[in-house]
Amino acid sequence: MTALLETRGLTAFYGDFQALFGVDITIAEGETIAIIGANGAGKTTLMRAISGVLRSDPETILCRGEAIGALAAPDILARGIAMVPEGRRLFPSLTVEENLLVGAYGKRRGAWTLGGIYDLLPILKERRNTPATALSGGQQQMVAIGRALMANPDVLLCDEISLGLAPVVVRDIYAAFPRIRASGAAIVIVEQDIGQALKVADQVYCMMEGRVTLSGRPEELSRDDIHAAYFGAPSHEHA
Amino acid sequence: MNMLDTIVQGVLLGGLYALFAAGLSLVFGIMRLVNLAHGDLIVLAAFLLLVLVSTLGLNPFLAALIVAPVMFALGYALQEVLFNRTLGKDVLPPLLVTFGLSIVIQNGLLEGFSADSRRISAGPLETASMGLGPVTVGLMPLMALLSAVAVVVGLNLLIYRTALGRAFRATSDDTVTAGLMGIRPRKIFAVATGLAMVVVTIAALYLGTRANFDPTAGPARLIYAFEAVIIGGLGSLWGTLAGGVILGVAQTVGASINPEWQILSGHLAFLAVLLIKPRGLFPRAVD
């Protein structure tokens, strides 16, 4: 069976600087995977490569067996891969509702509509005519997630959605995830919050310095393994 | 009484200037591109209208309906093959390329049509006028002003009420994230420049029927358009309309004092606005 989305020996460069060294990741239909790692581990670069913001060698990223590594972002979206970018990147000239509607620009049909998003995240309906960047950080993150869902993705890439948010706000945002999973979308969560990642993921990948250093099902991974993969040295204080 | 007439004529003239400026304002608002060939493209459209009107005997308004899609296609192609390559962090390449295009268009028109000044005949409409209270207004200048208002209303509806308009604004905010939404910024820019060229066709219709023009008339039109955009504030189409009207009124008031002061007083009004409100009268809230 071919995977929904797969990277094979994916590399990435910023000029002379190599950010990814042969990354292999596999996502099945409807699966939720978490990619954890410290700052600079290459998680965001991986998301940028998959979403087409960075171009790669065609054969290093496969979607249902099709080589998509060299495609531009709009063509990646057309294959059902939508991204919630790091830092949210809402459009400041647009209201909350307009930001959501822009998410549907690619016109992929599916279960998610404006009404469905408002049902999932009711606060957005209350604030729908507000300029998007006037919202609180947590609400802006909800807009970014809703905007990506409006494309009715088969794969939802979520890059650092809890970064800079209070724990209670993060909990509210993650509360929406069971319903997103129920819609059938596979989810890729990039997190520095390991606890959150282990809670929601079917499969965890840990990255360090542009390489996958550990992968497995959350229940199979010991705390020490994760610590070593995350920081590059075994844990002493928590052993 | 006489002053009222002067101001009314100035407002009507301002409608024409707003038409010159609206396309420039649209393109700048979406992609921060200053098209130095804008005036020459107006003159090019005027010559296309002239050819249709003089050789086929078409009504100028009907001719404009034919020229508009041609100019849209020209604008789309120019953006796609030329201007898109110049957009980036550096502001100099688009200025140099559009300046070069301006020279190419002027010389192309000189080759094709000679340096003679021309005029598009609008028949009896040219001299038609109507009483409006104590003043008499020409029908064509009045239609130019109404067209300018219609263009601004139409473009604002497009920008604020349609999916294409949302894509314009989203691309203007952030091209990379717009790409993640399935928007192709280069296509969006090409459509925007195409639309600007439709507005240019409308401007050319009133330019060509109002006064004489020749292949070198473009740069002066560009200056008026540019001043109207700056007076109104970058990115605001209603501001651009107001800017055109202020420029027109300043010119007719100056001319009523001394005919030689018409152009000068327009430029002085522009400088005065820059001194008092450097960002224009109605700058956009963002950036």
Automatic annotation (TrEMBL), chain A:
Q: Keywords assigned by UniProt?
A: Amino-acid transport, ATP-binding, Nucleotide-binding, Transport
Every copy of the ABC transporter domain together lies at 5-234
> Which GO molecular function annotations are given, in alphabetical order?
ATP binding; ATP hydrolysis activity; branched-chain amino acid transmembrane transporter activity
Q: What is this protein called?
A: Amino acid/amide ABC transporter ATP-binding protein 2 (HAAT family)
Any keyword Endoplasmic reticulum?
no
Q: Which superkingdom is the protein from?
A: Bacteria
The reply to whether Transport figures as a keyword in the UniProt entry is yes
Cited InterPro entries: AAA+_ATPase, ABC_transporter-like_ATP-bd, ABC_transporter-like_CS, BCAA_Transport_ATP-bd_LivF, P-loop_NTPase
The upper taxonomy is:
Bacteria, Pseudomonadati, Pseudomonadota, Alphaproteobacteria, Hyphomicrobiales
The record, for CDD domains, names: ABC_TM1139_LivF_branched
Q: GO BP, one example? A: L-amino acid transport
Naturally occurring in which organism (per UniProt): Shinella granuli
Protein family membership: Belongs to the ABC transporter superfamily.
TrEMBL record, chain B:
What Gene Ontology cellular component terms go with this record?
Answer: plasma membrane
What molecular function does GO assign, one term?
transmembrane transporter activity
Keywords in alphabetical order: Amino-acid transport, Cell membrane, Membrane, Transmembrane, Transmembrane helix, Transport
Q: Which CDD domains match?
A: TM_PBP1_LivH_like
Compartments, record wording: Cell membrane
Highest taxon of source: Bacteria
Membrane topology recorded in Swiss-Prot or TrEMBL: Multi-pass membrane protein
Q: Which terms does the UniProt entry file under GO BP? A: amino acid transport
Establish whether keyword S-adenosyl-L-methionine is in the entry. Answer: no
Query: Which stretches are transmembrane?
Result: 6-29, 36-55, 91-109, 139-159, 188-208, 228-249
Q: Which Pfam families match?
A: BPD_transp_2
Q: In which family does this protein belong, per the annotation?
A: Belongs to the binding-protein-dependent transport system permease family. LivHM subfamily.
What's this protein's name?
Amino acid/amide ABC transporter membrane protein 1 (HAAT family)
**What lineage does UniProt assign to this protein's organism?**
Bacteria, Pseudomonadati, Pseudomonadota, Alphaproteobacteria, Hyphomicrobiales
